[in-house]
């Protein structure tokens, strides 16, 4: 019979697997940040910075307040002279930071045909693509905006209205002919793939690569369904299933059942189930613990949708909403804004989850120190509760 987990046990396994139950280091060194990234496997990027850009937040949740410049240095963000370091970027979930050492795992993805419309566009613009690559070869690391190609002109109309030079560079990024060597003002700095070390040019077979990606997903999630495992590296379930079967046959995964889960699940063989977890963290909307929304609902009874593209009058919980993890539950969500000019972290909405059976005052008492800590980490001098929500009144009292 498969091993059986109660739902609270599954939650504790998942939280511990993500490194969210580990003691915070007393000194968040670069090595501590590197270990946190390794535990997650990838670090998702997102440009919205109303509170803070998303890739900074999973590190905060796992190691506590750390100098953001330390992560910038690791990732070669805003450096004087961008060059390939330990990390690069690829579509290894969405747009994510990943170790250069993992580049061979994605050879099959880079070699696969792109969307039919993009492939057709590339066929029609082959000469432009070659010209863009030649300029990178000649000039070295560049942002797309810095290319001298005569067609690299602003078209107006905002973020999405990009010229053909931009799309040529994006195509070369997706095929791996250009690699990310850092960022400047959050724009990718790209360079020809010749900057990669020899080992990164290995062509790992697709089946072997997917098996390793699924093995890592299982370790990072602790307990997972097939859909969970496939989503972590954004694979199709049909591609993930043979990898799961292979890992089970080799004794690396074991089947389990979980209370309330209609589908079968798996754990790394010999996975320990913590008796309890003690933690408190603000989670990015793109934190691996919650980024696959069906899994968040199954594990925590937590239904979450991104609000940044929702009209203001239709938002239920605010604009940039962060889940609040306390021990083995997601107990609340808060909409945060860093008002850097005023030096204030503004809590624009604070809401206790209806699934949480504890007192609102207890949630507020544990959340208030997290908010003060986040404000100080942001260089802000105060926290102000200004919006509505079932938690707002209690939270304001603990922040006086």
Brief descriptors of the model:
400 residues, alpha+beta, five-stranded mixed beta sheet, four-stranded mixed beta sheet
Q: Write down how many β-strands occur, each being a DSSP E stretch of 2 or more residues.
A: 14
Strand residues, percent: 15-25%
Going by helix content, strand content and strand pairing, the class is: alpha+beta
Mean pLDDT: 96
Identify the strand order in the major beta sheet: 10-11-12-13-14
Radius of gyration: 22 Å
Query: Rough shape?
Result: globular
DSSP helix fraction? 25-40%
Low-confidence stretches: none
How far is it from the N-terminal to the C-terminal residue, by CA?
54 Å
* H/E element order: EHHEHHEEHHHHEEHEHHEEEHEEEHEH
Largest sheet: 5 strands, mixed
Helix segment tally? 14
Descriptive account of the structure:
Helix content is 36%, strand content 18%. By secondary structure, it is α+β, with helices and mostly antiparallel strands. The protein contains 14 helices and 14 strands. The mean pLDDT is 96.
Summarize the structure.
With 400 residues, the chain is an alpha+beta fold. It is 36% helix and 18% strand. It is globular and about 65 Å long.
SSE order and pairing:
Elements: E1 3-5, H1 7-17, H2 30-40, E2 43-44, H3 57-63, H4 68-75, E3 87-90, E4 96-99, H5 107-111, H6 116-124, H7 126-139, H8 164-175, E5 178-184, E6 187-192, H9 206-221, E7 224-225, H10 226-231, H11 237-249, E8 253-258, E9 265-268, E10 280-282, H12 293-300, E11 321-326, E12 329-339, E13 344-352, H13 360-377, E14 382-385, H14 392-398
Parallel strand pairs: 1-8, 13-14
Antiparallel strand pairs: 2-4, 3-4, 5-6, 7-9, 8-9, 10-11, 11-12, 12-13
């Amino acid at each position: 019979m498969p091993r059986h987990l109660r739902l609270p046990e599954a939650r504790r396994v998942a939280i511990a697997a993500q490194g969210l139950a580990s003691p915070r280091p007393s000194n968040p060194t670069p090595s501590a940040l590197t270990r946190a990234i390794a535990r997650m496997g990838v670090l998702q990027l997102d440009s919205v910075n109303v509170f803070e850009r998303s890739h900074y937040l999973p590190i905060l949740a796992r190691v506590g307040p750390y100098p953001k410049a330390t992560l910038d240095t690791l990732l070669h963000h805003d450096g004087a002279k961008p060059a390939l370091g330990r990390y690069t970027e690829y579509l290894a979930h969405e747009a994510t930071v990943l170790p250069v050492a993992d580049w061979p795992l994605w050879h099959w993805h880079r070699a696969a045909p792109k969307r039919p419309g993009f492939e057709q566009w590339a066929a029609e613009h082959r000469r432009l693509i070659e010209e863009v690559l030649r300029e990178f070869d000649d000039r070295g690391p560049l942002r797309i905006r810095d290319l001298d190609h005569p067609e690299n002109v602003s078209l107006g109309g905002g973020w999405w209205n990009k010229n053909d030079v931009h799309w040529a560079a994006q195509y070369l990024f997706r095929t791996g002919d250009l690699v990310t060597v850092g960022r400047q003002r959050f724009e990718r700095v790209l360079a020809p793939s010749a900057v990669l070390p020899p080992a990164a040019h290995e062509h790992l077979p697709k089946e072997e690569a997917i098996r390793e990606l699924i093995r890592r997903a299982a370790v990072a999630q602790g307990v997972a369904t097939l859909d969970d495992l496939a989503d972590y590296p954004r694979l199709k379930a049909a591609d993930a299933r043979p990898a799961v079967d292979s890992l089970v046959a080799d004794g690396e995964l074991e089947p389990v059942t979980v209370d309330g889960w209609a589908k079968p699940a798996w754990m790394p063989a010999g996975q320990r189930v913590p008796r309890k977890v003690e933690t408190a963290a603000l989670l990015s909307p793109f934190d691996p613990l919650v980024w696959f929304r069906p899994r968040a609902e199954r594990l925590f009874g937590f239904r979450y949708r991104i609000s940044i593209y929702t009209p203001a009058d239709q938002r239920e919980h605010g604009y940039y909403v962060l889940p609040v993890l306390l021990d083995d539950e997601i107990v609340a969500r808060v909409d945060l804004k860093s008002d850097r000019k005023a030096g204030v972290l503004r809590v624009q909405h604070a809401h206790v989850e209806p699934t949480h059976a504890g007192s609102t005052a207890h949630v507020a008492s544990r959340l208030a120190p997290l908010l003060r800590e986040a404000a100080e980490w942001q260089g802000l001098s105060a926290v102000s509760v200004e919006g509505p929500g079932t938690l707002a009144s209690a939270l304001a009292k603990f922040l006086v």
